[in-house]
Amino acid sequence: xxxxxxxxLAGDGIGPEVMAQAHKVLDAVEQKFGLNFQRTxxxxxxxxxxxxxxxxxxxxxKGCEEADAILFGSIGGPKWDTLPxxxxxxxxxxxxxxxxxxxxxxxxxxxxxxxxxxxxxxRKDIAESxxxxxxxxxxxxxxxxxxxxxxxxxxxxxxxxxxMRYSKKEIRRIAVxxxxxxxxxxxxxxxxxxxxxxxxxxxxREITEEVAKDYPEVELEHIYIDxxxxxxxxxxxQFDVMLCSNLFGDIISDECAMITGSMGLLASASMNSDGxxxxxxxxxxxxxxxxxxxxxxxxxxxxxxxxxxxxxxxxAAADAIENAVVATLEAGVLxxxxxxxxxxxxxxxxxxxxxxxxxxxxxx
Length: 364
Ligand code: NAD
Ligand code: IPM
Ligand code: MN
Prior knowledge:
By secondary structure, this protein is an alpha/beta fold. The chain is 42% helix and 18% strand. The protein has a 10-stranded mixed β-sheet, sandwiched between helices. The model has no long low-confidence stretch (mean pLDDT 98). It binds nicotinamide-adenine-dinucleotide, 3-isopropylmalic acid and manganese (II) ion (MN). Manganese (II) ion binds next to helix 9. Homodimer.
């Protein structure tokens, strides 16, 4: 029996609620595929601040270092919003983990499944034209991490600054991720930038063009971020892989999630060059709906499937989870945010969706 060590960091808000569903699904996978996931829970985010005074306690980081992969929930919330930036859950825990493990390659797959165009807020004909995009987001550099950042000056002259910076090496490795992914999909990379204004984007284009030469069968297109945001709503079927810097990928991936129907559908993998990864929903702790058993657990469940696929190479189990999720959506077992106001009385709870996915998985 294959045994794997997983560090599970559920975090804040809806994190623990949706993580409970991922646990159920992993239990079912163990049963069906004869695998053994040795899961250890560690405190992270605001929960860890309340418990231990810091968002990423040393024991949590050590547990992650010793694991085969990290399954992450979500962190942050109003309670911790007034802390200095460097102590907040977002930076002190999540950005630190990304940086510590050099998780530069962030994959966020968004798809409208055949027959499920009704879930999309896009006009019917546009939603039905097809949408199957992989956002490849650079995750450990750019304006999130560039130094210096801070405040200077005084009074009305006081100003704030962040630094956007990219090295050729950093651009090259994420571009390679995008082209490698495109080769396994529909052979198209759309690189998203602001090369009409930003020096970083000019270098981004130059290096992306260089990398493209090694992948002659993959078509490369460049698009400005503002136009990309618009084209996604006008003609989403034109995209395959969208290659983005850190900030642009953050924004574009939320838009892609919503095109499929909900933030709660978008999973993600954040990996380094050794194949080690952290897997988490692209959305946050959703304080507006936390604690009500109404959050959509699909992104968390699909993040577990990505973990099996990319870090553990358990392809059959990953496929089985994804098929069970599609069957659940097709059966109309949906959390409320996926339904119109008139249909919302038919909403399934977080638990019900988790249970249904398990049932489909064991049946399939
Ligand atoms: P959010 O993603 O938490 O919520 C945005 C909207 O999407 C909300 O209306 C929320 O209800 C909805 N939503 C998100 N996930 C959902 C789900 N699974 N099911 C149903 N609806 C869902 O973003 P926000 O409100 O801007 O941020 C809230 C907190 O989360 C902030 O502290 C933010 O910094 C943090 N955050 C954390 C992560 C992470 O842990 N990876 C990601 C994004 C935001
Ligand atoms: C995401 C989140 C994070 C980001 C925040 C919480 C730091 O929005 O994973 O998309 O901006 O990367
Ligand atoms: Mn985001």
